[in-house]
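Field: sequence (string)
Field: structure_tokens (string)

Example rows 1 and 2, in order.
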Amino acid sequence: MKGRDLLTILVLDLLFTVIFIALIGSPKWGFFFFIILLFVFWIFFSRKSVEETDGAEELRRELGVDGRTAALLYSAGYRDLSDFDGVILEDLLMVEGMRREQAESVMRALKERISGKV
């Protein structure tokens, strides 16, 4: 789970708790509401994280790249090989956290996959 997800959990939880306290008028019940929502949001975001890990693993196997590179690509919206149609090196370099060496290895892997199919 990323730090951004944890921040999102806390912000959403606090927002809903403040609304709950304003509607109910009892800070005591607001605390319990905060704890319950924290648990619910944690479960929701953890599940999302697991799905991303599974998808990145599949992408890693298809391309033959390392796990970090596959995770970066997956989080940038590249879910399967069809998402790479017409992609150029500069597109991959725009992925947040992608280094030139990683982008070049992805391009090599894509070219090998294409030449293997022909």
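Row 2 begins here:
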Amino acid sequence: MTEYQFLQTSETRFTVSIVTEHGTSPEQLREETKKQVASFLARKDLQNVEFDIEVVEELKVDEKTGKRRLAVKQGNWGPELRDPDMKEQSALC
């Protein structure tokens, strides 16, 4: 796996998009990633969170910045994901 991206689709669901290296089996990569994510969620006591793994040719690019973001929020639920490129606004403004 060379690149990955998290697409959060609800408060308790996300998809991991992964781009494989040439010669890597997509099914093997999907299964290994699934095991690692499930293990991480279990250690954090987040078994209620559901996820999917998809193998893609390229990751989504932010239309505003032209950059690939690690985490992307899809939909109009919950708080917005903080954009690391935006500076924090001062409370004195």
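free_text_note (row 2): The beta strands are 3-10, 13-19, 50-55, 71-73.
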